[in-house]
């Protein structure tokens, strides 16, 4: 572990919280010190849930370490079962509490509860949040799901959606509707919305739909091995992937029918005059591997963009990401350090970023538009409106998600033409970032930047650089400085600027 201002994934017990919070009738007893008790903040503020997460903490303090912290855990378990009357409980320790080795699972199992007690062994210092969610859901399915008679009609389970997931609520609704259009009923959706009683009857389905491999693949593999339930391998993000998903479902359920595409608008929109001027825009993608791989296909094949770089933070899926990167001819970036990501984006100098909440901040610093396509995200990415990214309606949403930031960038370019006006000069800031117009004065007029690495921009070159659209200006500055440095030029004038432009245009 290392100290960081930002982390793409929390510790694994946060993944367990996501599973518990998504379910009903399940309670999570977490052995944790005061300070690790932030579930309320995560789920009620960021996700804007209308109820508190079902988590009980022991919340021991420093003074308790000299006594028996195991007693605190037993008391917390008894109080949670008596107060919340759950159908089952899961028990575990936070990363800090793991160090005192109290064995919460063993203690809870010996307490004689008349409900299932599922212990979680989550290695906090080796694994992270997505692993914690995947392992927790697997342990719940392993403990509760039992062989049962298949349903008379062909049904499926939807696996993987959790609390605090990126658009999980709306994705589930969209895919459930798509399956219904095919004549296939959903037996159980889990963990999101499922109870322990629902988990018991998962074996009644004929196959499983795996929407989120990061949080549901272990359970899907278990069901395939234990109950003979095959599971889908295609994530239905985008038009092409959704059609591939439908074809995969038709192989598992040959009597099903093809769903209607009447509401699909992305293909026509992306071929329209309003969109073709965006063709060829270079995009950099970063997030969880499943969303990045799926969105790269959408960006290239359905929007006409060029993939300039791609990467993921979850190392468990590094192999799949590397395979995809090879297909797009880019170097894969596997890291959980946002500074590495920022350096890679700055070097690639794309016209757009598709990433997480962190890449949104990186984009603001670099002056590059960004659309959020993956967790981790903040409150603005849990919209009140229906906004899936899966299925055919999800494809329509993706068109807006990818195009609107670029359209706003072009609008800024038009505003740049009037940059000498009071409202539109450079110091006013981009209008779509909420910048307030500021009057230009001698004190606030732009000054040439301080010399860097012994390269000085002359005033005339600075004025000429400002004629370049703002969204490619940083790249033009970097290329010119690199050109000058290679030739030993210490002062950049207008001639150097245009020589560099001609050099990089070849």
UniProtKB/TrEMBL annotation:
Record bears the keyword Iron: yes
UniProt-recorded Gene Ontology molecular function terms: 4 iron, 4 sulfur cluster binding; ATP binding; metal ion binding; oxidoreductase activity, acting on iron-sulfur proteins as donors; oxidoreductase activity, acting on the CH-CH group of donors, iron-sulfur protein as acceptor
InterPro entries: ChlB/BchB/BchZ, LI-POR_suB-like_C, Nase/OxRdtase_comp1, P-CP_red_C, Protochl_reductB, Protochlorophyllide_Rdtase
Record domain Light-independent protochlorophyllide reductase subunit B-like C-terminal: where: 457-501
Cofactor(s) in the UniProt record: [4Fe-4S] cluster
Name of protein: Light-independent protochlorophyllide reductase subunit B
Enzyme Commission number(s) from the entry: 1.3.7.7
Region (Disordered): 429-450
Domain Nitrogenase/oxidoreductase component: residue ranges: 12-406
Enzyme class: oxidoreductase
Function: Component of the dark-operative protochlorophyllide reductase (DPOR) that uses Mg-ATP and reduced ferredoxin to reduce ring D of protochlorophyllide (Pchlide) to form chlorophyllide a (Chlide). This reaction is light-independent. The NB-protein (BchN-BchB) is the catalytic component of the complex.
Substrates-to-products reaction catalysed: chlorophyllide a + oxidized 2[4Fe-4S]-[ferredoxin] + 2 ADP + 2 phosphate = protochlorophyllide a + reduced 2[4Fe-4S]-[ferredoxin] + 2 ATP + 2 H2O
Alphabetized SUPFAM superfamilies for the sequence: Helical backbone' metal receptor
The record's free-text note on cofactor binding: Binds 1 [4Fe-4S] cluster per heterodimer. The cluster is bound at the heterodimer interface by residues from both subunits.
UniProt GO BP: light-independent bacteriochlorophyll biosynthetic process; photosynthesis, dark reaction
Family membership noted in the UniProt record: Belongs to the ChlB/BchB/BchZ family.
Annotated binding of substrate, by residue: 409-410
Active site as annotated: 274 (proton donor)
PANTHER family on file: LIGHT-INDEPENDENT PROTOCHLOROPHYLLIDE REDUCTASE SUBUNIT B
Binding site residues for [4Fe-4S] cluster: 36
Alphabetic keyword roster: 4Fe-4S, ATP-binding, Bacteriochlorophyll biosynthesis, Chlorophyll biosynthesis, Iron, Iron-sulfur, Metal-binding, Nucleotide-binding, Oxidoreductase, Photosynthesis
Gene encoding the protein: bchB
Pathway the protein acts in: Porphyrin-containing compound metabolism; bacteriochlorophyll biosynthesis (light-independent)
Subunit structure: Protochlorophyllide reductase is composed of three subunits; BchL, BchN and BchB. Forms a heterotetramer of two BchB and two BchN subunits.
